[in-house]
C-alpha cells in the first residue's frame, strides 16, 4: 500500500496462505495480525477478523496476498512515517483519563513519533507492547484551562501518495508541489483546528496529532480504567472515539450485553467453560456467579467478578518484573527432522540473545511448545512432561527444573533436551516451535559470582 496506492481500495493481506483466518463479514481470508485494508475505503466493520482454522483455503478470489520483506524495514525506518499508509491505530483514554492506544501493522509504524506525542500528555505512559500504550491524562486535563489551536495540513490533487487526504477540494490550496514518488501534482491545504479543554477534546487532539505526524487514523475509548478504555477503543474504529461515563450505572449498562470474549483475560478455553455454564455475556457473569464456584478456582472467580463489575485488575504486591521469557517461530509445516532441529536451534539462539537484554543471568527451564498440522493426531510424549492439548496446539511443560547459568550452557542444554522431546512427536507435521524459561534470576538479584552447575539439575536456582 505504501508503494502502490491502488491497493488501498481492494482486499489485501501481508503474510502467506499458511497463516490465514476467516474474515466473517467480507467473505475473505486475511492474516489476523497483518491485515491491511485501507481505513479510508474499507470500513473496519467489514473486516472483523475472527480466529479460524489454520491452513484453510481462501474463498475470496479477489484477495491479494503479499509476502513479508523484513529486510526492507530497516532501510525504510528513516522515512517510513512520511509514506505510511493508514494502518489502524486504536486510542483509548479513560475518564480518569487513562488510555489504551493500539495500532496495526507494526513494521510500518515509526513508534518513536507516536510515543513522543503520548509522552507530552503523560510522562509515565505505559507501553503495553509495540502496538499498545496506556496513558493517564488526569493531571494534564486538570491543568488545561484554555483551548488550543493547531495547524491542519491535508493533501489533494492528482497525487494520493501522502496522507491525510482532504475529503473535498472546495477551498483554495495553500501551496502546490510535485510528488517525488509518482510525479503528479499534490495540493496542500492548510487551516486551523481548535480543541477544547474537556477530556473528549484532549483525546480528539491526540488523535489529530498522530494522524498529522504519521498518517495513522486513530480510534479512541474513554472510560474509568484501563480495562474499560481498551474495550471502548474498539467501538468506533477506524477513526472515531467512544466515551463511557464515569458512573456505576453507565458502566453496568455498557458491560452487560457485551460478549465475554470482548473483555481481556477471557480466551477460548475460558469462553468454552463459561459457555458450558450458560454464560455468554458479561452481564450473565454477574447473574450466574454462583455457577463459578463449582467450576473455577477462587482466583478465576475473582477475576470474572471484577470483569462483570467493570473493575481493573487486582493490584499485585509481588515482584512486578517479568516471570518468564520465551520465543517461538511459525513456519511451513514439515516433519523433516533436520529442518525442525535447525529451526529449534535458531529459536534457542534467539532466546539466548534475549537473556542479556532482559538482565537475566539464570533461569528454570519450564517447557517447550509446538503446534501440529492436525492437533487430534498428536502423539503424547513421556509422562515426565505435563501436557495440555488445546485445539492444534500442544504445550509441554517439563516437571524437571534445570538451573542454567550462562548463555552457552543455556542454549546447548535446552537444545539437547528439546531435540530429544521433538523426536517423540515425529512424524507429525509441525508448524510452530517455541521455548519458554521461567523462575528468572536477574542481575540485580545476584549477590555473588557463583555459577550454577547444570549437573545440579534437580535443585532449585539459588540467588
Provide a compact summary of the structure.
Keywords: Membrane, Transmembrane, Transmembrane helix. By secondary structure, the chain is an alpha+beta fold.
**How big is the Rg?**
25 Å
Question: Which whole number gives the mean pLDDT?
Answer: 67
Q: How many domain modules?
A: 4
Fraction in beta strands: 25-35%
DSSP summary: helix tally: 13
**CA distance, first residue to last residue:** 51 Å
The level-1 CATH class of the largest domain? Alpha Beta
Helix content: 25-40%
**CATH fold node name of the largest domain:** Alpha-Beta Plaits
How many E-type strands? 19
Per CATH, the superfamily of the largest domain is Reverse transcriptase/Diguanylate cyclase domain
Domain UmuC: 114-267
Organism: Strongylus vulgaris (Blood worm)
Protein name: UmuC domain-containing protein
Family: Belongs to the DNA polymerase type-Y family.
Any overview of this molecule?
One of its GO terms (molecular function) is DNA-directed DNA polymerase activity. With 463 residues, the chain is of the alpha+beta class. The protein folds into 4 domains: 5-68, no CATH class; 82-243, Reverse transcriptase/Diguanylate cyclase domain (Alpha-Beta Plaits, 2-Layer Sandwich), CATH 3.30.70.270; 248-309, Orthogonal Bundle (DNA polymerase, domain 1); 324-445, Dna Ligase, domain 1 (2-Layer Sandwich), CATH 3.30.1490.100. It has helices at residues 71-76, 80-83, 111-119, 138-143, 199-214, 226-232, 248-255, 268-276, 282-287, 289-295, 298-309, 337-357, 407-423, and strands at 12-14, 21-23, 28-30, 64-66, 88-92, 98-103, 126-129, 132-136, 148-157, 175-178, 185-195, 217-222, 241-243, 324-334, 360-372, 385-390, 393-398, 403-404, 430-442. The strands form 5 sheets. The chain has a 6-stranded mixed β-sheet. A hairpin with a 5-residue loop joins strand 5 (88-92) and strand 6 (98-103). Helix 3 (111-119) packs antiparallel against helix 5 (199-214).
